[in-house]
Amino acid sequence: MRKTGYFIAAWLLAAGAVAAQPRQVGYDDIAKGKLSAKSVAGLLPMGDGEHYTTLKDSLILRWRYADGKLADTLFRGPEGFPKVAGYTFGGGESKVLITTEREPIYRHSARSEYYVYDRLSGDLKRLSPNGKQQEATLSPDGTKAAFVRDNDLFVVDLTGPEFRERRITHDGVRGEVINGIPDWVYEEEYSFSRAYEWAPGSDAIAFYRFDESGVKEYSMNTFKGKLYPENYNFKYPKAGEANSVVAIKVYSFDSDSIVDIDLCQDTTDTYVPRIEWTSDGRLAVHWLNRLQNRYRILLASPTTGAASVLYEERNPRYIERIDNETATFLPDGKGFVVKSERDGWMHLYRYDMDGRLRNRITDGEWEVTALYGIDAKAGKVYYQSTEGSPLRRGVWSVGLDGKGKRQLSATSERGTHSGVFGPGRKYWINYFSNSTTPTVVTLRRVSDGRAVRVLEDNAALRTRIADDYVLPRKEFFTFTTPEGTVLNGYMLKPADFDSTRRYPVLMTQYSGPGSQQVADKWGWSWEAALLREGVLVACVDGRGTGFRGEEFRKCTYGNLGALEVQDQIAAARYLGGLSFIDPARIGIYGWSYGGFMALNCILKGNDVFALAVAVAPVTSWRYYDTIYTELYNGLPQENPKGYDDNSPINFAGRLKGKLLLAHGTGDDNVHIQNSYEMIEKLVQADKSFEMLIYPDKNHGMGASRDHLLRRAIEFVKANL
């Protein structure tokens, strides 16, 4: 009995040991987030400089910087309260606007139910009972709120026992006029969903009015299990076509009137990518011409609408995307800081309020990649940059005069650092990772960058990885193209890599202007699961991608897809020349712009690529929107060759390898028209290919994403 028991126990132990052996990463490990790092979510620094808040399980928690302990719970909903999707403060943080029941519309926009929580009285009230709202905000003084419903702007008086709702605009009509929220192309390309801003004194609201009546409609079939499909129509300006006519207006509470802002232009065919208020109550309007190579900051009176040009910049190709960091007005009202690449690299410059350049703040053959804040009182600027390597990021401080530069992120931690700086500028929160280190979140002192404590170290993930997995090796490399350009790349190899074998390889890429895939940070995408199937993975950032200076990024201007495809073909030839890669089994994958590239590569590089997986691809830039396409390719009326010479639909007859196309019919961004036209050209050319159509799915594929990626793995495994 004892002997038998001993052998059974030994067998069980041995079986357990076998079961517990570390294994290579599979698709389920990635899809189910088993390699995903935790972070500190919903973090908002508070105005006192001593606390920050986070959102967890619908609770708004307040933490102390000093000891990292929970100070209190700012909000806990009553029994049955909807799940909290987000929150913002108003009235000196005395009120909290709580977002619930969020119903997405496009990439950034949504309809929601909002509640106002008064921290002093403990009152919790629904903002409006008259239907879901868009982009609700509290006024700076907390006495009012604003939101958009049915394309019109509303304000709510929060001072009485009952909230009083009032309509500010009355001409909002779907497909014709929009007030206070952007049209489709502004939301997608300028990345904002609220098109109004409170004056600092809470006495006025500046807002956009979009007249999209002249914009052509795109129509999508929606199925949703119905007997008769319905059409979803929305205004979508394609390259070279009419845009919305944009006006900027200011509503004054004191006079109950609306003033039009003079945009100092002789045509309405322009863009206004941002508006903001200065500390002295004037309105700054960021203006671009249609070609987006001329940028102005206008300074306007909110009472008369009169405006003048404060700042102007021109570029022979284009001005890089205007966002919240392009120009930052100093809180003391004595100037502003501009982020510009006028010398070929993205840097910071300081100006007076008369538009006179005082000094440059940063300098060098590297780029400022984020502006975290400006402490005018201390004369300090806090930013992120590529100094040291375009593959990595560090966090720095420097004086407004350009002196006293100091690295705040730890120099010993090579990888990607990003920061969140509180208003008090006493502490900041650092997010760090690299290709072998999951995210570490630390609280640090602003004065010297030293760590005060660790907020998240992903210890559980590190243990799980050590116990359960043999992670792939991510090796960074460079190579020189036949044209003499040095490109950055990485390769994933399995832990049991055998240099005497010849492996197939799948190249993954995006390649779009200003993008970056080759970066030293934590993250595992679905392609890593191919290693278990005996397929290596490689990625190369070609010309046109970001963070290597203006010339490297803008050399693709006016000819999207030409140099980028040359570089991916050169990368494939380089990889095929390595002793452990089979040059006859090289594939390429991409989504969106990457799908456009994957198609072009297997067509124009048909002697190099044996396989391509193209998801939601652009197949002609004539089908894509005005702001994005014209920024990088000019107008099709003026540059037809730039649109047609690299459109995959014009080269379908060159297909030789295996092709998998995938698209969602509900893609409001890259319309399925792109793939349908590609299919027609392939059929006309009598080419074989595989196609996956996902009914009603948008650009990200939603719940069908998992199905698509599993099929992609099967396709690569079977054909490469």
Question: What does this entry look like structurally?
Answer:
By secondary structure, the chain is α+β, with helices and mostly antiparallel strands. Helix content is 16%, strand content 36%. The strands form ten sheets. An eight-stranded mixed β-sheet has the order 36-37-39-38-40-41-42-43, with helices on both faces. It is globular. The chain starts with a helix and ends with a helix.
Give the helices and strands, then pairings.
Layout: H1 2-19, H2 27-31, E1 44-45, E2 51-56, E3 59-64, E4 70-75, E5 84-90, E6 95-104, E7 110-118, E8 124-126, E9 134-138, E10 144-149, E11 152-157, E12 164-167, E13 177-179, H3 184-190, E14 196-198, E15 204-211, E16 217-222, E17 230-235, E18 245-252, E19 257-260, E20 270-277, E21 283-289, E22 294-300, E23 307-314, E24 327-329, E25 336-340, E26 347-351, E27 357-360, E28 368-375, E29 380-385, E30 394-399, E31 406-407, E32 416-421, E33 427-434, E34 437-445, E35 451-456, H4 459-468, E36 473-480, E37 486-493, E38 503-508, E39 536-541, H5 550-554, H6 562-576, E40 581-591, H7 593-604, E41 611-615, H8 626-633, H9 640-644, E42 658-664, H10 673-684, E43 690-694, H11 705-719
Parallel strand pairs: 38-39, 38-40, 40-41, 41-42, 42-43
Antiparallel strand pairs: 1-2, 2-3, 3-4, 5-6, 6-7, 7-8, 9-10, 10-11, 11-12, 13-15, 14-15, 15-18, 16-17, 18-19, 20-21, 21-22, 22-23, 24-25, 25-26, 26-27, 28-29, 29-30, 30-31, 32-33, 33-34, 34-35, 36-37, 37-39
Helix pairs in contact: 6-7
